[in-house]
Amino acid sequence: MAYLAAAFIAVWVIVTVYVLYIGNRQRQLEQEVDILQELLQEKKK
Amino acid sequence: MSTVAARPNRTGLGSVLFLLLTIVTILAMATMMWAALVYARPASNLAGDEQTAQRIFYLHMGCNIGALLVYVLSLVGSVGYLITRKLGWDRLTQASVEVGTLCGIGTLITGALWAKPTWNAYWTWDPRVTTATITVLIYIAFLLFRNGIDNRQARARFGSIYALVAFISLPITYYSARWFRSIHPVIFNGANPDSQGGFDIGPSMGQTISIAALAFSLLCITLMIYRWRQLGLEDRLAEIREEIE
Questions:
Q1: Is residue B182's pLDDT more than 90?
Q2: Measured distance CA(B56)–CA(B107) in Å, rounded
Q3: What is the pTM of this model?
Q4: Residue B236, C-beta contacts closer than 8 angstroms, at least 6 positions apart
Q5: CA B194, CA B184: separation in Å to the nearest integer?
Q6: Helix (H) or strand (E) holding B240
Q7: CB distance B244–A40 less than 8 Å?
Q8: What is the average pLDDT across B227-243?
Q9: Partner A contacted by B109 (CB < 8 A)
């Protein structure tokens, strides 16, 4: 039973870590979009 | 400069379809868990820990099929890039290899956890286990080497050629248990008389394998699309940064 539980936990940990990585990267990119938009607005002024 | 509005359009039809795909994937994974743990009948020729651990097979097989699917997509992406030189194809290769490598690692871990009660060892130098590990290492090297190249087009060219060559390791892994003497069970397209821990597939087992294959395929495709879109945003931002500088 321990091996079966360990296998399920391992798979879900792998999936969760990757989803968190994608989510974190998305937040970083959205922050970068905001910074670039501010930069462009300053340039227009 | 309107390209700065690079945030994905969250209200578009594509986003709605993608949200539906995500929901279907979550439901399919939940169904896979139920089928693997409850619905599938235990293997009648096994007993004790070995019989319980046999249910790991559904995860093992699911990860394996998911990895195979996205590695095929990485091949499509690399051929597409080499023909058209469009970066969208390269992003497909990158996203596919990332997800495929995760599934490959999942296959190795679940295989090791299934092997312990069956073969009495987490690891053996069995041809199938060894070739599968080499395949995963080849794709991990792809990610490390590729991300070390700064020039975008050079990175895409390197990645496409590497992914094309790396794909050869997949048929070698598949046929290794047939070409060489192996204790790894061969479930589909033949049998391995030397296998240890093999079993016959009954109707509920066959249905569970189908559910697991579908669920992991959906999971891999969903993750791959998420990452593919994200890589598109990364590329657009890099272009805008260059324009501003």
A1: no
A2: 10
A3: 0.87
A4: B3, B6
A5: 8
A6: helix B203-244
A7: yes
A8: 89
A9: yes
Q: What angle do CA B127, B220, B207 make, to 5 degrees?
A: 75
Alpha helices in B120-202 (DSSP H): 127-147, 152-166, 169-179
Contact status of A40 with chain B (Cβ, < 8 Å): yes
Q: Which of B49, B60, B226 sits opposite A22 (nearest CB)?
A: B226
Cβ atoms within 10 Å, residue A16: 10
Of the candidates A3, A19, A22, the beta carbon closest to that of B113 is on A3
Whether residue B113 lies within 8 A of chain A, CB to CB, comes out as: yes
Q: Does A38 touch chain B (CB under 8 A)?
A: no
Select the residue of A6, A25, A36 nearest B4 (Cβ to Cβ): A36
Average pLDDT, chain B: 87
Q: State the Cα–Cα distance between residues B209 and B204, nearest whole angstrom.
A: 9
Domain locations in chain B as residue ranges: 11-244
- Kindly give, in sequence order, each residue whose CB lies less than 8 Å from that of residue B120, ignoring residues fewer than 6 positions away: none
**Do B219 and B25 contact (CB within 8 A), yes or no?**
yes
For B89-100, b where at least 16 C-beta lie within 10 A, e where not — what string?
Answer: bbbbbbbbbbbb
